[in-house]
Design goal:
Layout lengths: L1 E4 L4 E4 L2 E4 L2 H13 L5 E2 L2 H7 L8 E5 L2 E7 L5 E7 L7 H12 L9 E7 L2 E7 L15 H4 L5 H21 L3 E3 L8 E3 L5 E3 L6 E3 L6 E2 L2 E3 L6 H6 L1 E2 L1 H17 L15 H10 L17 H14 L10 H9 L19 E2 L2 E3 L6 E3 L29 E3 L4 E2 L2
Helix pairs in contact: 1-3, 5-7, 5-10, 7-9
GO molecular function: ATP binding; protein serine/threonine kinase activity
Protein name: Protein kinase domain-containing protein
Keywords: ATP-binding, Kinase, Nucleotide-binding, Serine/threonine-protein kinase, Transferase
């Protein structure tokens, strides 16, 4: 049932007031943001000054959702200023979700939102500036040879532990709990010391303590989506843990979860990892770019933790606090408990479409195809990690099953 309120540009659907025009969107945004206590509201002229009137020299990224500029605020802080285009796929809901979630929490492994700007048709997010881009544009784009950053084993281990701590904080310490829904390499940013920061909370969902799951439309990125979430749309923290497991194996192996440049049997990272695990040859998956300078026992342990996190049954996956203890050696791995990873390709017909604005594979609104992400090549878009759902996929719960 739908009742239109034409004069104000809103309509009511199932008791919810929804903006349906640009003016209504602006009024709605300004009203909602004004009610958030911990968000600084910047004037548009302040943003223009900070970026030297959005100078091309200050642009550090661009995508279908808009552009990111490096800027210096009045207080002298450097900032990453996300200017969303009018054509951006990020809607009002995602914009407000990003602000609501990240403004209320602080952790050393989460990005910091300084504030936002909502004037006229301008929607702008202002974050702390992180010097070393995202994992997909550095480590997974060729490492030192492409980015000039040396990802030795110690650095990779610290990144893994940092991301795990940030996710454990969201899952277990924040009330209500936060499910990120889009943990992936492009959403892990690196500061000057290569400390990781989880970014992009546009798809995040809150999980009240008395609920076992949230039923929602499927959203996320192919290759990181937990199969049970993709199939049933029932979201739990275990979906994030699956995504983290994929990311963990990417960091250790130095490759994306799918690389079509490799022979067919090597293209899917999870399948390759399971095959090597069964042959007790997991060390062969460790990034050859380390030139053999790494702790083989620890590297294999990290890969096993990745397999624990991606097990087909969500109930078998560890909590993120347990993952932290496993990574840091406070808890031992019981290899007998590792079962085969859940692979969407085992039981689903998926249809992939190429998003022109991001050049990344996404989930179709109706169906899914084989789990994949980008290959070990970079699209050159450095801005998606600061976006609110800018490169993530959305879908309704309609699937073509092959079983």
């Amino acid at each position: 049932m739908e009742v239109q309120i034409h004069a104000l540009g809103f309509f009511i659907e199932f008791g919810i007031l929804i903006p349906s025009s640009p003016i209504a969107n602006l009024v709605y945004l300004q009203t909602e943001i004004a009610a958030i206590d911990n968000v600084k509201i910047y004037k548009y002229r302040e943003i223009r000054q900070a970026t030297d009137d959005f100078s091309g020299d200050n642009k550090i990224g661009e995508g279908g959702f808009g552009s990111v500029y490096k800027g210096r605020l009045k207080d002298g802080k450097l900032a990453a200023i996300k200017v969303l285009s009018a054509e951006s796929r990020q809607g009002v809901r995602e914009f407000l979700t990003e602000i609501n979630v990240i403004s209320e929490i602080q952790h050393e492994n989460l990005v910091k939102l300084y504030g936002c700007c909502v004037e006229g048709n301008h929607r702008i997010l202002v974050y702390n500036y992180l010097e070393n881009n995202s994992l997909d544009k550095t480590l997974l784009a060729g490492g030192y040879s492409r980015s000039g950053i040396q990802f030795d084993w110690s650095t990779r281990a610290n990144i893994c532990v940092g991301v795990a701590k940030g996710l454990a904080f969201l899952h277990e310490e924040v009330r209500p709990h936060v499910i990120h829904r889009d943990i992936k390499a492009s959403n892990i940013l690196l500061d000057k010391d290569l400390s990781p920061k989880i970014s992009d909370f546009g798809l995040a969902r809150l999980m009240p303590a008395n609920m076992t799951h949230v039923s929602t439309r499927v959203a996320g990125t192919i290759g990181y989506l937990a199969p049970e979430y993709a199939v049933r749309g029932q979201l739990t923290r275990k979906a994030d843990i699956y995504s983290f497991g994929v990311l963990l194996m990417e960091i250790v192996s130095g490759r994306s979860n799918k690389n079509t440049r490799l022979p067919t049997e090597y293209q899917y990272l999870l399948e390759r990892a399971w095959e090597l695990y069964e042959r007790n040859e997991l060390v062969d998956l460790v990034d050859s770019g380390l030139n053999g300078v790494f702790d083989a026992e620890e590297a294999c342990k990290y890969l096993k933790i990745g397999l624990l996190c991606t097990q087909d049954s969500p109930k078998l996956r560890p909590t993120m606090s347990t993952v932290v203890r496993l990574l840091t050696g406070e808890k031992d791995i019981d290899s007998k408990k590792i079962t085969r990873p859940g692979l969407i390709s085992d039981f689903m017909d998926l249809k992939v479409r190429e998003a022109a604005e991001t050049k990344s594979e996404e989930v179709n609104r109706q169906n899914y195809t084989n789990p994949s992400s980008s290959s070990n090549t970079s699209s050159g878009d450095n801005s998606n990690a600061y976006s609110s759902g800018g490169s993530s996929a959305y879908a309704g719960n309609t699937f073509s099953s092959t079983i």
